[in-house]
Amino acid sequence: MVGQRLVEALRDRDTEHRWRVTVLSEEPRQAYDRVALSSYFEGASAADLDLVPDGCYGSDGYELCLARAVTGIDRAARTVSTSRGDLIGYDALVLATGSQPFVPPVPGRDLPGCFVYRTLDDLDAIRAVAGRAAATTRGRRSGLVIGGGLLGLEAARALRLLGMSPHIVELAPRLMPLQVDDGGGALLRQMIEELNVTIRLGTSVASIQRDGDRLLATLADGGELDLDVVVFAAGVRPRDQLARDAGLDIGPRGGVVVDDGCRSSDQDIYAIGECACAGGRTYGLVAPGYAMAEVLADRLCGGDAAFTTADTSTKLKLLGVDVASFGDALAATEGALEVTVSNPVERSYAKLVVSGDAKTLLGGLLVGDASRYGLLRPLVGRPLPGDPVTMIAPAGPGPGADVLPGDAQVCSCHGVTKDAVCAAITDRGLTDVAGLKDATKAGTGCGSCVPALKSLLAQSGVTINPALCEHFAYTRAQLFEIVKANRVTTFTELIQGHGRGRGCDICRPAAASILASLGRGHILDGEQATLQDTNDHFLANIQRNGTYSVVPRIPGGEVTPDKLIVLGEVARDFGLYTKITGGQRIDLLGARVEQLPAIWRRLVDAGFESGHAYGKAVRTVKSCIGSAWCRYGVQDSVSLAVELELRYRGIRSPHKIKAGVSGCARECAEARSKDIGVIAAEDGWNLFVCGNGGFRPRHADLLLSGVDTATLVRTIDRFIMFYIRTADRLQRTASWVESLDGGLDYLRSVLVEDKLGIGAELDAAMASHVAAYTDEWAAVLADPGKLRRFVSFVNAPGTPDPSITFGSRRGQPNPVDLPAPSRRGAQLEAAR
Amino acid sequence: MTWTVICRYADLEPECGVAALIGAEQVALFRTFDGALYAIGNQDPFTGAFVLSRGIVGTRGEIPTVASPLHKQVFDLRTGVCLDDSSARAGAFAVRRRGGLVEVGTE
Question: Is the distance from CB of A440 to CB of A452 less than 8 angstroms?
Answer without folding.
Answer: no
